[in-house]
Input
Amino acid sequence: MSRPPAAQLRDLALEAARAAVVLVREHAALGVGVAATKSSEVDVVTEADRASEALVRSLLLERRPDDAVLGEEGDDVAGTSGVRWVVDPIDGTVNFLYGLPQYAVSIAAEVAGPDGTEVVAGVVVNAATGTEYAAHVADDGTAVATRDGSPIAVAGPTPLARRLVGTGFSYDSGLRELQARALVRLLPRVRDVRRLGSCALDLCHVAEGSLDGYVEEGVHLWDHAAGALVARAAGARTALLTGVGGRDLMVCAPAHGFDELLAAVVDAGYAAEPPAGPAAG
Output
């Protein structure tokens, strides 16, 4: 089965994300309310989340009906093409609920290969501001990351003590307590920490150099698939470890400073145990 050009998958993802952003803004103009909760009372879903994902699924499968789709709010759809779309219809739903301009539509395309699946295209569009981050892996294996069509790159080397690090907290109160304890140990070692509320956008902020790193336990594939590709394409490394709470722990930083941040994260107690081998990405 031939692999579809990643640039075409990126363009389709961007088209779908733009359409979803229009819909999300229409919902915002009418007023946002909680439609349901998921893992806890603070893990909310809005009607805009559901409508955005339904629209994205419809547009993607209209163009590529044989593809699979994994979305945060809907059922998994199996496919036969070797391509799977990973969709977060609104990453940062609580920000959306409160009117904070840090929430995004995130769409990634995975392609099956002999060594497993690989994310080859991804877009993250800030639905509040319209800023578009995109990346794809070219046929020669090189990756390109852009913001509003212009190339972006991670920040230059800086000592750990002068790095600004993004993070997030779980909806589960028990895991939040573990995260808070680790944060207390990490905070004195870095410039400062920011909790902005969207994993996908935080990863893109690393990509564009407005954050020097990012760490969070409790992320899901739809949270980070597209944003992590954008970050790696811009010169970052990522690692997905097991966190102290037993859930996926994402660590991202510019490649030149990744090992130092990872060591600080492990020392602070974010990880269940030190990584066994070289970090991925």
Q: What stands out?
A: The chain is about 35% helix and 30% strand.
